[in-house]
Amino acid sequence: MGENILIIADKQPLTAAGIRFLAEKSGNFDKTIEVADKRELHQTLEKICDELIEVVLDFDLFDFENLDEFTAFSKLFENAHFLFIGEHFTEEVIHSIAEELSANIILKSTDLEELSIALSLTIRGRRYIHSEILDLLMSNNTTTTVIKTATMNSQLTHTEKEIVSLIAQGKTTKEVASIRNLSYHTVVTHRKNIFRKLEINSVYELTRYAMRMGLIDLTEYYI
């Protein structure tokens, strides 16, 4: 069984020290490593590619030029779970991080308890959305939208609703197939039908839908 390793990619010494303290206190990690730049991060990830890895990345200060560069980088290390930390995030950036990267997000303004929870969930491959960010995601809900999604919800079968819940929790198609005892291709078909019925195009939109319709327990996101 491999080790649980936390990599801290943060240029602020105090923030890095706080994250290290919480990680050691939690007992969820066997080793904590701090890296100074993306080159060192790349080299470190290459050396420990067989372990279970969590990377806490400072969105504002680390030396990736943009999300596109980081997206290309992250695809090289699919065994790593990423937790983005920053001062603020636009809805466009949230969409990109949650949808394209399937990464977690937390604000630096969070308290230590929430940060500890985010660290714990991320290493286990669970989804985490900071409460203020969730408020932003939900802020576009209007009465018309709620009525429309409620109507769409009635069109989903029981199995489809369960699959929506699992996907919104961050489960991959392969994981959904295993949990529901279905074939991979059957889940792919269900997923296509769900997206068609709900008139959506991304997991990001599916997660918002699941939250609105109560198909996931919002305590999973520690609001």
Notes on the protein architecture:
- The chain has 223 residues and is α/β, with parallel strands linked by helices.
- It has 2 domains: 4-130, Response regulator (Rossmann fold, 3-Layer(aba) Sandwich), CATH 3.40.50.2300; 140-221, Winged helix-like DNA-binding domain superfamily/Winged helix DNA-binding domain (Arc Repressor Mutant, subunit A).
- 52% of the residues lie in helices and 13% in strands.
- A 5-stranded parallel sheet has the order 2-1-3-4-5, sandwiched between helices.
- The longest helix is centred in the C-terminal third of the chain and has 15 residues, at 184-198.
- Mean pLDDT is 82; it is low at 141-153.
Task: Tell me the structural class.
Answer: alpha/beta
CATH class descriptor of the largest domain: Alpha Beta
Our Rg estimate from Cα atoms comes to 18 Å
How many independent structural domains? Answer: 2
- Share in helix: 40-55%
Unreliable runs: 141-153
* SSE string: EHEHEHEHEHHHHHHH
CATH architecture of the largest domain: 3-Layer(aba) Sandwich
**Residue-averaged pLDDT, rounded?**
82
Percentage beta strand: 5-15%
Shape: globular
How far is it from the N-terminal to the C-terminal residue, by CA?
A: 33 Å
Question: Quick one: how many beta strands?
Answer: 5
Q: Kindly identify the CATH topology of the largest domain.
A: Rossmann fold
CATH superfamily of the largest domain: Response regulator
Q: Biggest sheet, open or closed, and with what strands and sense?
A: 5 strands, parallel
- In DSSP terms (H or I, runs of 4 or more residues), the helix count works out at 11
Strand order, sheet with most strands:
2-1-3-4-5
